Amino acid sequence: MSKEGESSSKGSPEQSQRSLWTTWTFLALSVWKKLSKRSQPAVMIGVVMIYLCVMSLQLVDDSKNRRSAARGQAKIIPKSPDESILLAEFNRRKKIIKDTCEKFGAYTTRDKLLAKLKLKPGPELYPGVEKDDQLWSTLKRTSHHQFFVQKEHGLMWCKVPKAASTSWLHAYLTMAHVPQYEIPEDNGMGLHAFLREKYPLLSKNLNKQFMPVSLKFLVVRHPFERVISAYMDKLEDYTRDLKYRGGYYYAMYGADIVAKFRQKYQEKFPKNPLFMKKEPSFVEFVEFLIETPVSKYDEHWKPQFLLCPPCHFKFDVIVKMETFERDTNFILSQRNLDGVVSLTKKHSSVGGKKKKEANLVQTLFSQLSKNMVQALYEKYRIDFQMFEYDISDYVKYASESEGLMPDVIEVSAVQSESVEEEESGDEVTSVESITKEP
After folding, report:
1. How many helices (H) does the chain have, and how many strands (E)?
2. Whose C-alpha in 89, 151, 155, 254 is 20 to 30 A from the C-alpha of 127?
3. What is the pLDDT of residues 301-360, one digit of tens each?
4. What are phi and psi of 301, to 5 degrees?
């Protein structure tokens, strides 16, 4: 039996408490029988009072535990002044999330939200962008599909594709004591399926059982960075898609995007090489995103609040890619995994990589009009507000236009080397050293 299986066979903390309570009651009754034959009534009353006091304290403690379980909050104890400061930052992030959930009506009825919008209607949105009352229904949905429960170490990770998911995937496989030679090749579709095989999707009741005793976390990333990463990895290069996924993304999305948008772009920009290749251009992909309901997005570009609904799951830690190493080390410290599992940024201090990433952003967003950038922001506006991101570093590269479609696109093509560079940027962290716990 694996360590994880051994851990689950030991029973939950609630079962241990019930067993202890049963043992205490049995001993108390045994003492009562002996004393009742030998002691005076006053002594008997004293024993009863002590027993009732202990029982009351236990009931209060059980009540607190049940309330904690209902909230789904794992107990976090800072181990240093720095961790106390960091915990305050995590609590601030959680408050921003809660405020955003309240703003978009996650905790109220549709009728009340409509009444609020009638009194204070929001700004006019671009065609294809969901209104607040349409997003309300998506905020109400809950799903455990993205959760991976590491029972042995008390971790619950909600996986957001394109946000260090491959790094945590390898960490989880190693914590499950999977030999390196058994792990499928990176970039293959079987890698994430293999993770689910090792960590099967739990039932709703089992998830509720582990939530109170697990540290729940997710990793979030700038919405536009995720869009770029998804495009470069899945759609920009058909040969790459064919190699790693048998052409799945071109068949499912790329061919349809080209069929729907290519003609009008070729007519407006007849000599631009972007619209002469097999794959969809970035501007075509963005127009596809604007027109498509977010509920129908592929998971690689689906908004993060839909993948891991933070309005309903009370995450203990919200990791941000900008502070990935610091936030991740906090999680490892809380579960005594520091020195056992190490996830560190790769090439984080290399200025050349940052320059290439900036060039990629400029190359792609210069294909867009400012109106398109604004519309794309509106599609992801809950993510932007919930996780505190803005569009200033992206909209500056876009062009002015009268309508949604750009009036001018400079003749430029993404260098092929950017694809491989973006792949490492997609999962900018790597498992440098993971050893088995002694």
Report:
1. 21, 6
2. 254
3. 999 999 999 999 999 999 999 999 999 999 999 999 987 887 754 434 334 566 678 899
4. -125, 10
Q: Residues, the chain, total? A: 438
Q: Which residues pair with 345 in a beta bridge?
A: 429
Q: What is the DSSP string of 381-419?
A: HHHHHHTT--SHHHHTTSBP-SSSS-S--------THHH
Q: Are 301 and 289 in contact (CB under 8 A)?
A: yes
The answer to whether 101 touches 311, Cβ cutoff 8 Å, is: yes
Q: Which residue has the tokens 């962290």?
A: 429
Q: Are 331 and 317 in contact (CB under 8 A)?
A: yes
Residue 59 backbone phi and psi in degrees, to 5: -65, -40
Strand-strand pairing, 341-345 and 215-220 = unpaired
Phi then psi for 274, rounded to 5 degrees? -60, -30
Q: In which band, very low, low, confident or very high, does the pLDDT at 390 lie, cut at 50, 70 and 90?
A: very high
**Phi, psi dihedral angles at 187 (to 5 degrees):** 75, -10
Strands 341-345 and 429-434: antiparallel
Strand partners, 156: 149, 216
Per-residue H/E/C for 412-427: CCCCCHHHHHHHHHHC
pTM of the model: 0.78
Average pLDDT over residues 416-429: 41
Neighbours of 397 (CB within 10 A): 17
Q: Mean pLDDT lowest for which of 10-24, 155-169, 223-237, 402-416?
A: 10-24
Q: How many CB atoms lie within 10 A of CB 396?
A: 13
Q: Is 438 exposed, middle or buried (0-12, 13-18, 19+ CB in 10 A)?
A: exposed
Q: Bigger pLDDT: 166 or 328?
A: 328
Query: What b/e sequence results for 47-85 when a residue is b if at least 16 CB atoms lie within 10 Å of its CB, and e otherwise?
Result: beeebeeeeeeeeeeeeeeeeebeebbbebeeeeeebee
Terminal-to-terminal C-alpha distance of the chain: 18
